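Run log, item B.
One chain of 187 residues. Sequence copied directly from the ordering sheet:
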Amino acid sequence: MTTTLVNSGTGPVESARKFRHVLGHYPTGVTVVTALDAERQPVGMTIGSFTSVSLQPALVAFFPARTSSTFPAIRAHGSFCVNVIGAHQEEICGAFSRPGPDRFRGLRWRPAPSGAPILDGAVAWIDCEVDRVDDAGDHHLVMGRVNGLEVEAPGRPLLFLRGGYGAFAPLPPAADAAERPDDRSTS
């Protein structure tokens, strides 16, 4: 069955499958968004759609599915911590992607200023209070006001691209900028 996407009433964009395929060529970082539930137990979910929004005030955003069973607990807590997962933590990404109550089993963590878990081994963390939540199609847009952040282990972050995981490897610095081809237009 092919699902047709509609672009603001102007007509079909393409099938959902093609939409996913094309956008899968854009790499995304992998994060685990954590919080505490009503019983003060840790909850968390893998999020690939995380972004910085503003410097003044410091805002970030992520986009959980409207069907998420974890997001209501995060929303109710009123704050969350975004853990930037390292390339060596692919198994953590998998654990927080699957449904179930044992996502934190065997994991070490400590509380962020909000109390939300900072996962050991994460590259960085961003602790936020929920600023606003808006509907965004089949997802929510969650805006967070940053209250604290830190680089924990300046390693390579885990990336997701075309259905698989990997890590970013920066290009070596150019010895001489003049040796680099200039791809800018001169017109």
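Observations after the first pass:
- The chain has a mean pLDDT of 85.
- The first strand starts at residue 4 and ends at 6.
Flagged for discussion on Thursday.
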